[in-house]
């Protein structure tokens, strides 16, 4: 069925579910509890799920105990992430005991794995709806079946070539917004589950993306982050010949007081054109998240990353030459199967050379079904945690010295919230460093010029200018 017809059909289901839920909630507004795990792509999916739930007449709550509908949107990236989800689903058994009419749904990346769906089927019989990453737009239909048939609903797979545009979105914030530009991943890095649970790369039509950004800016959003597992390969398979740099230029051409970011960039597809585009733009932050994963070329080859240490460092050199103020962050995996301590030391030396603003660091987690899960992994977990601590220490020193250098400078900060612990406003610089400073609530959601007065490790403190 074409996407537009499918969406129309779902709207009819949504109206029916709204009527049924209203009766079930006995005149009150039914409430939904939605918890999203994992990356920003999942957060963006969660916002669409909330959009559909709002269309089905739901209000939202942070308290599972007062919810009529509970949904967990899950992540499969590491074993620890999955274990946390299993623990939290298990805990819902008591909620269901107290409120037998509550509907429970579990969706997201974990559900695209057969063994996980099977475990939910057998171990958690109180879960009513299970669905995967390709069918979120069919939530109204699944809800309808669950409430009218009182049967369990399992809907997984069904990857299609078409992207369903036009789903309602209920965004979590009103100053920062996520805009997905592409779905899926074709890279099959040997450690990674994402290509199996998110399917093949599919790019959204550029006009749809530009229009979404234009509407967000008109609504007053101050920061837009474009999302994709590998935004640098944006455009593959579209009828129009377009690459990511061109997409950025089209968005950047929209007038207004806003910032543009994007993630994630894969180094194998990052081009000089990309850095030139950032440097020449009006709105794109001089900031890039460019995961290197390892600083050793043999390990990178085993990871199937398709670049080596030299290519990575060459990119960084070019980028810094173009933008001396460029802020770079990265992801690192410690203890990939077969990695030796000497090879790990190459990662340390790369980190020292690049001087990342911050790092997201992970100990390798074996994901069933991936290539790396079959590789020999002789180094003990305990040993890997030692390497991990060493890495953190090196990065902490780098981040602290970078922050210390910023004392005395003035920075444009997008204020996000108030830190409840110390009462200070809290936001981020263009380089994505956290800044805290005193000020009134009216500044939340606005840009503010701040003079940096103090560096507390990797968090800055300052005062408002003017
Ligand atoms: N598409 C992005 C990464 C998405 S997953 C990219 O290619 O850069 C986010 C991060 O999780 C990865 O960059 C990697 O560092 C980490 N990760 C993915 N699979 C992992 C695994 N099996 N074990 C440990 N870390 C993993
Ligand atoms: Fe995973 Fe690699 Fe795809 Fe990133 S590029 S999502 S690490 S397979
Ligand atoms: Fe996790 Fe899926 Fe994102 S596995 S990291 S939520 S794409």
From TrEMBL:
Quaternary structure and partners? Monomer.
Q: What is its EC number?
A: 2.8.4.3
Q: What does this protein do?
A: Catalyzes the methylthiolation of N6-(dimethylallyl)adenosine (i(6)A), leading to the formation of 2-methylthio-N6-(dimethylallyl)adenosine (ms(2)i(6)A) at position 37 in tRNAs that read codons beginning with uridine.
Per its record, the protein catalyses: N(6)-dimethylallyladenosine(37) in tRNA + (sulfur carrier)-SH + AH2 + 2 S-adenosyl-L-methionine = 2-methylsulfanyl-N(6)-dimethylallyladenosine(37) in tRNA + (sulfur carrier)-H + 5'-deoxyadenosine + L-methionine + A + S-adenosyl-L-homocysteine + 2 H(+)
Task: Give the protein name, as stated in the record.
Answer: tRNA-2-methylthio-N(6)-dimethylallyladenosine synthase
TRAM domain: which residues? 404-466
Chief place where the protein resides: cytoplasm
Q: Source organism's superkingdom?
A: Bacteria
State the needed cofactors, names only.
[4Fe-4S] cluster
Any GO MF annotation of the entry: tRNA-2-methylthio-N(6)-dimethylallyladenosine(37) synthase activity
Q: Which NCBIfam families match?
A: miaB-methiolase, MiaB/RimO family radical SAM methylthiotransferase
Localization in the cell: Cytoplasm
